[in-house]
């Protein structure tokens, strides 16, 4: 039996890559360059780039990228950066720039690289989660659909995600991030602790 191997090349960024993440269902690859202003999400099967998210205007080092568990909900991508903020990007409400560009006057006038940068980001930020410059890692541990008695079972109304953040100097935080289909969001800090102090106290006892 002959085996077929496929090779796809993704032209992610002009600058060297700083972070990369693969979604749990294997559909998406997220990338960030050393500049850190734009985060791109690519379809693995076709090496296309359906989502462009602007993290910020000024360069910042992306310390971590991570997808939430894939469910029948909008896919969530989270990131931390040297600015000290936590970023959440919702793929479920993102706009496909290729589709928009074909019929838009702006897309006809501007080059692809510029109109990509203007793609509206479904971007939710938790400012100053950790001190600026602190290296950190963020993961989405759980995503749940919030039930609504007036909505059908297949209709997305809102979701709640458990987001865990840990810094290299031992601080751990856990947040509840909530988002609805109007792209409104909120953050709630559930608890935080210093892991190094906890370990030290346990050793002394």
Explain what you see.
Helices cover 14% and strands 42% of the residues. It is mainly beta and 205 residues long. The strands form 3 sheets. Strands 1-2-3-4 form a 4-stranded antiparallel sheet, with no helix packed on it. A hairpin with a 4-residue loop joins strand 6 and strand 7. The termini are far apart.
Relevant terms:
205 residues; mainly beta; 4-stranded antiparallel sheet; 12 strands; 14% helix; globular; single chain; Lipocalin
Question: Summary?
Answer:
The chain is 14% helix and 42% strand. It is mainly beta. The longest helix has 10 residues, at 195-204.
**Secondary structure category:** mainly beta
Which CATH architecture is right? Beta Barrel
Give a count of the beta strands, DSSP E runs of length 2 or more.
12
User: What is Rg?
Assistant: 19 Å
Number of helices: 4
CATH fold descriptor? Lipocalin
Give the tally of structural domains: 1
Helix content: 10-25%
Question: What's the average pLDDT?
Answer: 78
State the separation between the terminal residues, measured CA to CA: 63 Å
Q: Shape from CA axes?
A: globular
Major sheet description: 4 strands, antiparallel
How are helices and strands ordered from N to C? Answer: EEEEEEEHHHEEEEEH
Q: Low-confidence segments, ≥5 residues, pLDDT <50? A: 94-121
The CATH class is Mainly Beta
Strand content: 35-45%
Q: Which sequence of strands runs across the widest sheet? A: 1-2-3-4
């Amino acid at each position: 039996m002959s085996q077929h191997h496929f090779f796809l090349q993704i032209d992610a960024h002009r600058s060297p890559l700083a972070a990369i993440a693969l979604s749990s269902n294997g559909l998406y690859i997220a990338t960030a360059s050393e500049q850190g202003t734009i985060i791109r999400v690519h379809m693995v099967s076709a090496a296309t780039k359906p989502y462009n998210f602007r993290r910020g205007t000024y360069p910042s080092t992306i310390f971590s990228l991570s997808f939430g568990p894939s469910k029948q909900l909008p896919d969530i991508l989270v990131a931390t950066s040297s600015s000290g903020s936590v970023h959440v990007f919702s793929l479920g409400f993102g706009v496909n720039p290729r589709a928009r560009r074909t019929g838009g006057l702006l897309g006809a006038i501007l080059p692809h690289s510029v109109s990509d940068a203007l793609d509206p980001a479904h971007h939710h930020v938790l400012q100053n989660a950790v001190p600026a410059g602190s290296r950190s890692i963020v993961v989405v541990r759980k995503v749940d659909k919030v039930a609504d008695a007036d909505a059908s079972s297949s209709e997305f109304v809102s979701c709640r995600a458990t987001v865990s953040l840990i810094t290299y100097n031992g601080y751990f935080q856990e947040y509840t991030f909530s988002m609805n289909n109007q792209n409104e969001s909120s953050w709630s800090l559930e608890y935080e602790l210093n892991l190094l102090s906890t370990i030290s106290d346990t050793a002394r006892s």
